[in-house]
Design brief:
about 950 residues; Calcium-transporting ATPase, cytoplasmic transduction domain A; Rossmann fold; 4 domains; 10-stranded mixed beta sheet; about 50% helix; membrane; EC 7.2.2.10; metal ion binding; calmodulin-binding
Length: about 950
């Protein structure tokens, strides 16, 4: 047993609380503490400097030095806290918590090679247009193109700024989830860990993360764990005398204590949320691979054009251009810059840099939507894992069932007490009050007189109502000598108390009925008589427990033993007297049954791992649908000890069919997760207590409920559900599947557009004979390439931002939860995507090159109209392809008919494209098209619909494709 803890009256701790009452709380000033002392205090815990601490008056001396008070803490006013943060620093560690502002992203956008080339060419456009057309006309055209370039850069910066802003806001919120009890101005209050200051007095309970370096106060003993990088823990015993040093970032696993904060901002686990991770790395690798291919093609084209220039095979308005002879200097300069610009444009347009931005937008949008649904996703990069979850391991009580409980049955001995307790012996009632009011699994709140756990609150309420229990009177009549808090491994708690009147000692135990019953040799009858438990009566008691459990009640047994000081130290295992057996009912959480059915329909198995008895667990699991009593082959229920005692081979054979583990300890939950992962399952764990931490860390996805979970469980969870509703878990999986699905859709769209641009631009560049006059400089073109500067900025806006918003900002459809989980090792670009990409790419390349080579004769148009038709057809092809890619495997009409954002963006693209061609032709270097030419462009683009539909009918079950797999170092 551990020493009595804070929160109880009339204990040995109460004496130590008075030792520093004469110290006065002051508003600490910068000149109050010397620089030397500040440095020594900051390093006090790191150095474990007991000598310096003794020389400066021990902990009492620190109270005075830090301007704090043992019973009142520091002043809680804003000015005092601000001064303390200025002197000692704030309690943040790691990355800068300030979000990067918009101007930072503007500078980052300017560093993008494509944006730089666009900007340089826009400036050159002004210069060349002024030199050729005069200041007035030349300035207007150049300024228009410069403005268009700046708009693209601004939109690009805003697109990057928005996800970062969302991550910053969620990081701040995530940090505030972790709170501890702090004494300020004489009042206990809940404070987020980042707001802790030096001098604060903090109350720590099991499951708390030590928020800062500090010293353990009072004569208490606690145990803290430090998680190492290998997943193991290093346990340390801390007490208020020999080893009072508490290190920031460690986790309290046993005991309760107050601590004095001496240093902040050192090892507290950063709650920064960022968009790095597996998906982003895949896109970086994919972008790099395609970019290198584009660079290679661009370099080859550059060599071809350079040879043609020196060979005199490039013409401008019928005049041969070559380096030899005496050609016009401006023409040569235009040709040279054009030759450099064409490969650069090809390299840039063929690199799908929009993939990274689209992935970040998808993750940020989904995080914001889930936050609005009271779900905090700490690791957005886990979207692939979330969508691939095949098994969910969860507790029973508090996860599937409500925290609130009600005592519905109480058995005293062999009798069920259904009549008023006035008929029960006063002595028995008094003993029950002792066992309920003083033997609690956790101490009462620092500012309330009732226990924080819902189970014990229900027992407290029952005792107050039925037994007229007076908690204040109990603390006045009895002293808590030792207390053993609830241990999930032993499934019991205990307390040793001393009665002030007669100096007698009373030992109380409470816990699982089978555990407590095994310690009892006698039981109390309602008359107060003590009777022996023989074999027959033991069977009756076991049947009583079994009946309660079969009705879905959680059973708790109470036992007592009066002892003397001599017996206390000589008896190894005193035989206890059974006080009673209590049954508590907890209803299922709303929506649990539907959530379980939704998971099963989505190919996700739920496994309930609970500390309840076999019968209670079976009743709860059957009620919520985890177990099917009509088909026992589809699910098995076992006890934790059986699961632990299986051989490794037996566990691996049985683990898939096990649905419920009863009387489980944290080690069995961890073992279950390890077995499932070994069988290549993707496992999510729903945990809430300190015993779930190892399973949360081991799982692919750790999930906890915010308000009722231990701080350490929240710290090691990837997802925090604030509303504590099980259906939120289904929504998380749906969103995870939707995120990845949307990213794949946009990837297919952008790769198609990039491949088409790479091939078509390359062919046009190497087959052209003339650069496009002055536009070879200003429009980043050579020959008959269809894209001018304004056109290129518009294409960048379409591909990098507008299409991403249309295809990415998309709520996950319900149909996703009617499919099995995707394979975890499934490549980013799967077989179906390659099928669709190849089909659309071949079609677009064929039609665009046909217009390039045969457009003049086929449509009886000049060169500029032909280039405009190529450009217009390419843009419209991408618009129609947005419809095709919105659904990878089926028709898109049903899915998108209610999506206003999608329709709004596609309508905007079409409208502005018409404006570019028909109104801004002088600025965009386009030619106006007549109705027949528009009809040809639209018809060519629209043909992608039936082609896409036809391609989706191609079966892929037996086709083996070489998929593009990206590797992460």
């Amino acid at each position: 047993m551990s020493t009595a803890q804070p929160g109880y009256r009339n204990t040995a701790i109460s004496t130590s609380l008075d030792q520093a009452r004469h110290f006065t709380v002051v508003n600490i000033q910068p000149d109050h503490i010397s620089e030397t002392n500040r440095a020594r205090i900051a390093k006090l815990v790191d150095m474990k400097d007991r000598k310096w601490l003794r020389e400066h008056g021990g902990i009492n001396g620190l109270y005075s030095t830090l301007g704090t008070h043992v019973d009142h803490g520091v002043h809680g006013n804003k000015s005092n806290l601000t001064i303390r943060r200025r002197i000692f620093g704030s309690n943040m560690y790691g990355e800068n918590q300030h979000a990067k502002n918009f101007y930072h992203h503007m500078l980052e956008a300017l560093k993008d090679p494509m944006n730089l080339i666009l900007l340089v060419c826009a400036i050159l456009s002004i210069i060349f247009h002024i030199s050729k057309h005069g200041a007035e006309r030349g300035w207007l055209q150049g300024a228009t193109k410069l403005a268009a370039t700046l708009v693209v850069i601004t939109v690009s910066a805003g697109s990057n700024f928005w996800p970062g802003k969302i991550c910053h806001n969620l990081s701040e919120f995530s940090s505030k989830i972790h709170q501890v009890d702090v004494l300020r101005s004489g009042q206990w209050q809940r404070v987020p860990i980042p707001e802790i200051v030096v001098g604060d007095i903090v109350f720590l309970i099991p499951g708390d993360q030590v928020p800062a370096d500090g010293l353990c106060l009072d004569n208490t003993t606690i145990q803290v764990d430090k998680f190492k990088t290998d997943g193991q823990t290093e346990r340390t015993v801390v007490d208020g005398s020999d080893n009072p040093f508490l290190v920031s970032g460690t986790n309290v696993v046993h005991g309760y204590a107050r601590m004095l904060v001496t240093a902040v901002g050192k090892n507290f686990k950063s709650q920064t949320i960022n968009l790095d991770g597996e998906v982003i790395y895949q896109f970086e690798n994919l972008t790099s691979i395609i970019g290198k291919a584009g660079d290679l093609v661009a370099f080859i084209i550059f060599l071809v054009l350079l040879v043609r220039l020196f060979a005199g095979n490039i013409y401008n308005e019928g005049t041969q251009l070559a380096v030899v002879g005496e050609p016009n200097f401006l023409d040569i300069l235009i040709a040279m810059v054009g030759i450099l610009a064409a490969p650069a444009m090809i390299a840039i347009t063929s690199t799908p840099k929009g993939l990274l931005l689209a992935a970040k937008i998808a993750l940020a949008y989904s995080m914001k939507k889930m936050k609005n649904a009271d779900v905090l996703l700490r690791k957005p990069s886990l979207c692939h894992a979330i969508g691939s979850v095949t098994n969910i391991c969860t507790n029973g009580t508090g996860s599937l069932t409500m925290d609130s409980k009600e005592v519905t049955r109480f058995c005293l001995g062999l009798s069920s007490i259904e009549e008023p307790f006035s008929m029960v012996s006063q002595n028995v009632q008094e003993l029950l009050c002792q066992g309920i009011g003083l033997n609690i699994s956790h101490p009462p709140s620092r500012y309330l007189s009732e226990p924080p756990l819902k189970t014990e609150k229900a027992i407290f309420d029952w005792a107050i109502q039925e037994l007229r229990m007076d908690v204040e009177a109990l603390h006045q009549r009895y002293q808590i000598v030792e207390i053993e808090y609830f241990d999930p491994e032993k499934k019991q708690s205990g307390v040793l108390i001393r009665k002030y009147d007669d100096e007698t000692f009373h030992l109380h135990r409470k816990g699982a009925p089978e555990v407590i019953l095994s310690m009892c040799s006698q039981y109390y009858a309602s008359t107060g008589l003590v009777k022996s438990i023989n074999e027959y009566e033991k069977v009756l008691l076991e049947k009583t427990i079994e009946g309660m459990a079969r009705d879905g009640l959680r059973c708790i047994a109470f036992a007592h033993k009066q002892t003397s000081m001599k017996e206390l130290f000589t008896s190894c295992q005193p035989q206890l007297i059974l006080l009673g057996i209590m049954g508590l009912r907890s209803s299922l959480r709303p929506g649990v049954t539907k959530a379980v059915n939704d998971c099963l329909r989505a190919g996700v198995n739920l496994k309930m791992i609970t500390g309840d008895s076999m019968l209670t667990a079976k009743a709860v699991a059957t009620e919520c649908g985890i177990l099917d009593i009509d088909n026992p082959q589809n699910g098995e229920i076992i006890e934790g000890s059986d699961f632990r005692n299986y051989t490794p081979e037996e566990r691996m054979e049985k683990v898939d069919n096990i649905r419920v583990i009863a009387r489980a300890t944290p080690s069995e939950k961890l073992l279950m997760v390890q077995c499932l992962k070994e069988k290549n399952h993707v496992v999510a764990v729903i945990g809430r207590g300190i015993g779930d931490v190892h399973a949360l860390r081991e799982a692919n996805i750790g999930i906890c409920f915010s308000m009722k979970s231990a701080d350490i469980a929240r710290a090691y969870s990837d997802i925090v559900i604030q509303n504590e509703e099980i259906p939120s878990v289904v929504n998380i999986m749906k969103w995870g599947r939707g995120i990845y699905d949307n990213i794949q859709i946009y990837t297919q769209f952008l790769l198609t557009a990039s491949f088409v641009a790479l091939i078509v631009d390359s062919m046009i560049a190497v087959t052209a004979r003339e650069p496009n006059g002055v536009d070879a400089v200003t429009l980043i073109l050579t020959g008959e390439s269809p894209y001018a500067l304004l056109q290129l900025t518009w294409l960048k806006l379409i591909m990098g931002t507008l299409a991403a918003l249309a295809l990415i900002v998309y709520e996950a459809p319900e149909e996703l939860m009617q499919k099995p989980p995707r394979e975890r090792n499934e490549p980013l670009i799967n077989h179906i995507m390659w099928r669709n990409i190849i089909a659309q790419t071949l079609y677009q390349i064929a039609t665009l090159l046909a217009i390039h080579f045969k457009g003049k004769s086929m449509f009886d148009v000049n060169n500029k109209v032909k280039r405009t038709m190529i450009y217009n057809t390419y843009v419209l092809c991408q618009v129609f392809n947005m419809f095709n890619t919105r659904s990878l495997e089926k028709s898109f009409f049903k899915e998108i008919q209610k999506k206003k954002l999608f329709w709004g963006i596609t309508s905007t693209i079409v409208a502005f494209q018409a404006l570019m061609v028909e109104v801004l032709e002088s600025y965009a270097d386009t030619a106006r098209l007549d109705m027949g030419q528009w009809s040809i462009c639209i018809a060519i683009a629209a043909l992608s619909w039936p082609i896409g539909r036809l391609v989706k009918c191609i079966p892929f079950s037996n086709v083996k494709w070489q998929t593009l797999k990206t590797k992460i170092d």
